[in-house]
Structure formats: C-alpha cells, structure tokens
Amino acid sequence: MKPVIPVLLLFTLLVRPAFASPQPLNTSDREAVFKAAGFILKGDKYVRCDDTVTGSSQSGSIEIADLNNDGAPEAWVKESSLFCYGNTAEAFVLVTKNNKGEWIKLLDEVGVPSAMPEFHNGWPNIMVGGPGQGPFPVYYYVGSKYVLNN
User: Fold this and answer.
1) What tens digit of pLDDT does each residue of 66-111 get?
2) Of 88, 82, 96, 87, nearest to 49 (Cα)?
3) Would the pTM count as exceeding 0.70?
4) Which of 52, 91, 108, 111 is deepest in the core (most CB within 10 A)?
5) 45 phi and psi, to 5 degrees?
6) Nearest partner of 69 among 14, 18, 116, 126, judged by Cα
7) Among 85, 65, 86, which Cα is nearest to 74's?
8) First CA to last CA across the chain, in angstroms?
9) Nearest to residue 137, comparing CAs of 106, 119, 113?
10) How far apart (Å, rounded) are the C-alpha atoms in residues 97 and 79?
C-alpha cells in the first residue's frame, strides 16, 4: 500500500484553491472599499440605505475573495434591510482595484450573489438570487465590469 498523505500534501501545495481568500484589508483599503461601493460612515457604521424605520437592517460589511485568482483581493460589500431592499432584504456591490490601485465598482445589485463555476474573461459568472424559484439573472465579466447575460 502506497502512502497517500504525501501525495495529498503535495497536491494541496501545488493546486491553488478556487476563489482563494487574500489577506484581510488594512484600514485605508477598508475605507476606500466602502467609498467605492457608495457607502457613507454614519456613527461607527457604514451605510448606503439609512433604514431608521425598521429594526431589520444590518449595516455594511465586507467579504474579501480572489475571484479571478490573480492574488489581489476583490470585495463583496453587503447591506441588509427589508425596508430598503424588499423581500430580498440584501444588496451587494462587488469592487476590485484597477491598475492604478483605486477601488472600482464591478457590479451593484439587489439580491444575493453567487459566484458560478462558469467563467468569462477570467472571472466567474455571478448569479443574483432572491425570493422565488427563479430563473435568476446571471451576470458575466466583459473586461471592466459585469453585465447582464441576456
């Protein structure tokens, strides 16, 4: 019987995981991500839709990923509110750094994003889900932003 563990270890070291998670953002990048996504600082929270009417809201949050496997982070900026976003209750903005080091918006939608296994121009297609059975819209990358796949 051949040892399996050394082979698995070597495979793990050589194969880069899909949608790897880069290092956490520093404070200035975090502020720039929220700004690029259209959020403002209100008190100690970042918001885009100021839901002072209901208790259903959650202020902006950032999830980082490396969607195109280039080693640089992309950021999903999300906010939740039934008052602002209806039954879906969530909106998101996907941002990345351009070649000048500035954070720019790639996609801004109401719904729940899911990176799909299909790719266009090195980036995953993104399905935007919500309430109901679908079909849900799918966006694909065209070189500078995501557009709806008609």
Assistant:
1) 999 998 999 999 999 998 998 899 999 999 999 999 999 999 999 9
2) 82
3) yes
4) 91
5) -125, 150
6) 18
7) 65
8) 53
9) 113
10) 21
For residue 96, list its beta bridge partners.
Answer: 74, 104
CB 93, CB 65: distance < 8 Å: no
CA distances from 90 to 84, 122, 142 (A): 8, 26, 25
Q: Which residues contact 80 (CB under 8 A, 6 or more apart)?
A: 56, 57, 58, 89, 90, 91
What pLDDT is stored for residue 4 in this prediction?
42
Q: What is the pLDDT of residues 25-37, one digit of tens each?
A: 899 999 999 999 9
One-letter-per-residue 3-state SS of 67-83: CCCCCCCEEEEEEECHH
